[in-house]
Amino acid sequence: MAWFKRKEKGITTATEDKKDVPKGLWYKSPTGKIVDTDELARNLWVSPEDDFHVRIGSKEYFEILFDNNEFKELDANLTSKDPLKFEDTKKYSDRLKDVMDKTKLKDAIRTGVGKSKGKELVVSCMDFAFIGGSMGAVVGEKIARAIDYSIKNKVPFVLISKSGGARMMEAAYSLMQLAKTSAKLAQLAEEKIPYISLCTDPTTGGTTASYAMLGDINIGEPGALIGFAGPRIVRDTTGKDLPEGFQTSEFLLEHGFLDFIAHRKELKNKINLYLDLIQNQEIR
């Protein structure tokens, strides 16, 4: 018997059905601007008229960051199990199978190793299309293995967060990933290997409470929602009106939680600039 019913609250769209990249001939941004999807893709999925950054996944970020989109994927076939035999509106094992079929992803994160502006880089990127980018055991394990690779090969590490938080279907197994990934990042810091965290829309829950905010450099995309609980939850809990722009990248930058905001067109250059500065290399 499911312990909650999404349809009773008027929620009928499954999380895994919400697409990162819009499909079809046209895309309408939240401000009402309409753009051809081919033009949107050429513009790195940024609406040219209002600069709105459309949600994208690991495929698109790898294309942006790796030279000629050439990279080697690590731990590509790692998949989640169902240790708790969890069931809500459907069995977790069935949900995993369905979302794998729909997204062609194995889980909510992928790791690539390749060159960015000629320098070796390890990039782990979350995919919101896979159960809301939720952080389960596989997400934590793949981040840990990516960090191990960075340490072994002395390669800088970039982690791109896009997540609704912990994966409830894995309960404590999911929450353990907060400590696991944080400990691994401490090892990376001890080896003096740079870690850059990019927070995209949305970066929330246990993701924010662990690796997303532990970067040597913490970057946000313009307009991204970044926080622990969402604005509606915070407002309902506190009973107070929230400041304008609460939990956006711009708000967090103003209050010292981010180092800077990077437009998607400048992301590759900005990341490599800061890696050069951290490593005292000649700036390219």
Automatic annotation (TrEMBL):
Subunit structure, as described in the record: Acetyl-CoA carboxylase is a heterohexamer composed of biotin carboxyl carrier protein (AccB), biotin carboxylase (AccC) and two subunits each of ACCase subunit alpha (AccA) and ACCase subunit beta (AccD).
Organism: Flavobacterium lacisediminis
Pfam families from the UniProt entry: Carboxyl_trans (PF01039)
InterPro entries: AcCoA_carboxyl_beta, Acetyl_CoA_COase_Trfase_b_su, ClpP/crotonase-like_dom_sf, COA_CT_N
Spans traversing the lipid bilayer: none
Subcellular location: Cytoplasm
Highest taxon of source: Bacteria
The protein's role, per its UniProt record: Component of the acetyl coenzyme A carboxylase (ACC) complex. Biotin carboxylase (BC) catalyzes the carboxylation of biotin on its carrier protein (BCCP) and then the CO(2) group is transferred by the transcarboxylase to acetyl-CoA to form malonyl-CoA.
Protein name per its UniProtKB record: Acetyl-coenzyme A carboxylase carboxyl transferase subunit beta
NCBIfam families named among the record's database cross-references: accD
Pathway connected to this protein: Lipid metabolism; malonyl-CoA biosynthesis; malonyl-CoA from acetyl-CoA: step 1/1
Reaction equations catalysed: N(6)-carboxybiotinyl-L-lysyl-[protein] + acetyl-CoA = N(6)-biotinyl-L-lysyl-[protein] + malonyl-CoA
One Gene Ontology term of the molecular function aspect: acetyl-CoA carboxylase activity
Record-annotated CoA carboxyltransferase N-terminal domain positions: 24-284
Alphabetical keyword list: ATP-binding, Cytoplasm, Fatty acid biosynthesis, Fatty acid metabolism, Ligase, Lipid biosynthesis, Lipid metabolism, Nucleotide-binding, Transferase
Protein family according to the UniProt entry: Belongs to the AccD/PCCB family.
HAMAP family: AcetylCoA_CT_beta (MF_01395)
Group of enzyme by EC: transferase
The EC number(s) this enzyme carries: 2.1.3.15
